[in-house]
């Protein structure tokens, strides 16, 4: 399993467990607001939880452009490279 797949699994676990998102809806193409029904507060909570679970430090300005789960994975990979 690649690092991206591992992080995707952690995101799925967090979204389904903490935010009650249906696991089958959590794909790389899933949009946080439209498809997963998250609001801006949920998005901030998600980043805080991921900072605790994943060894990446995603800055809030990097998160502003994130719209999908795939965007989040890309941003986390970029943060890992910058680390």
Write structural notes for this entry.
- The protein has 83 residues and is mainly alpha-helical.
- It has a single domain (3-82), classed as ACP-like (Non-ribosomal Peptide Synthetase Peptidyl Carrier Protein, Chain A, Orthogonal Bundle).
- It is built from 4 helices and no strands.
Give the number of DSSP strands: 0
Q: Going by CATH, what is the homologous superfamily? A: ACP-like
* End-to-end distance: 22 Å
* Name of the top-level CATH class: Mainly Alpha
Average pLDDT, to the nearest integer? 86
What descriptors fit this protein?
83 residues; mainly alpha; Non-ribosomal Peptide Synthetase Peptidyl Carrier Protein, Chain A; 0% strand
In short:
This protein has helices spanning 3-18, 40-53, 60-63, 69-82.
Record the SSE blueprint.
Blueprint: H1 3-18, H2 40-53, H3 60-63, H4 69-82
Helix pairs in contact: 1-2
């Amino acid at each position: 399993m690649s690092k991206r797949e591992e992080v995707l699994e952690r995101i799925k676990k967090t979204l389904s467990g903490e935010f009650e998102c249906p696991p089958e809806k959590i794909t790389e193409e899933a949009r946080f607001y439209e498809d997963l029904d998250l609001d801006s507060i949920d998005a901030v909570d998600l980043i805080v939880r991921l900072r605790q679970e994943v060894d990446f430090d995603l800055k809030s300005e990097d998160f502003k452009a994130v719209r999908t789960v795939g965007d989040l994975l890309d941003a986390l990979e970029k943060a890992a490279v910058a680390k």
